[in-house]
Amino acid sequence: MVEDTRKTHRIACCYGVIFLSWASTYLYAPTLPTFAASLGMSNAAVGLITSGFGLMQALLRAPLGILSDRLGKRRVLVNLSMLAAFACPLAMAIWPVPGSLILFRFLSGITAAAWPILTVLVSSYFDDSQ
């Protein structure tokens, strides 16, 4: 009975993390290029900001998945990606200068790169029959 409660709690926490992760990653994304342009950034810099997230996601997704499988430390990697999910937008808000916007938008791609790890972590809380 206690184990079922723990499992239910873990699953609920994972779903909460998923929601907060996507919210912290995508809520500001539509306005970021306009904001960057209003700071006087060049079109090339705005393009870097716009594409940096996807580039990091593409470059890190497979290596992070392999690392996760080898280390067996999914929860640690998910926690690090959630730290990036919340720290990067906060850093962009605190330091709204071109270099920091580019850097932190690139680093926020770590969150999306860790998405498969989170999916595997959630599925590990269910029995094989489920």
Characterise this structure.
The mean pLDDT is 86. The chain is elongated and about 55 Å long. The longest helix is centred in the middle third of the chain and has 29 residues, at 43-71. 83% of the residues lie in helices and 0% in strands. The chain is mainly α. The protein has helices spanning 2-26, 32-38, 43-71, 74-94, 98-113, 115-124.
Note the main attributes of this structure.
single chain; about 130 residues; mainly alpha; 6 helices; elongated
Give a brief rundown of this model.
The chain has 6 helices and no strands.
Layout of strands and helices, then pairs:
Elements: H1 2-26, H2 32-38, H3 43-71, H4 74-94, H5 98-113, H6 115-124
Helix pairs in contact: 1-4, 2-3, 3-5, 4-5, 4-6
Which secondary-structure class do the elements indicate? mainly alpha
SSE arrangement, N to C: HHHHHH
Fraction of helical residues: over 70%
Distance between the termini: 18 Å
Shape: elongated
Low-confidence stretches: none
Mean pLDDT across the residues is 86
- What is the gyration radius calculated from CA atoms? 17 Å
Q: β content, as a range?
A: under 5%
Number of helices: 6
- The count of DSSP E runs of length 2 or more, i.e. the number of strands, is 0
Give a quick account of the main beta sheet: strands, pairing sense, barrel closure: none
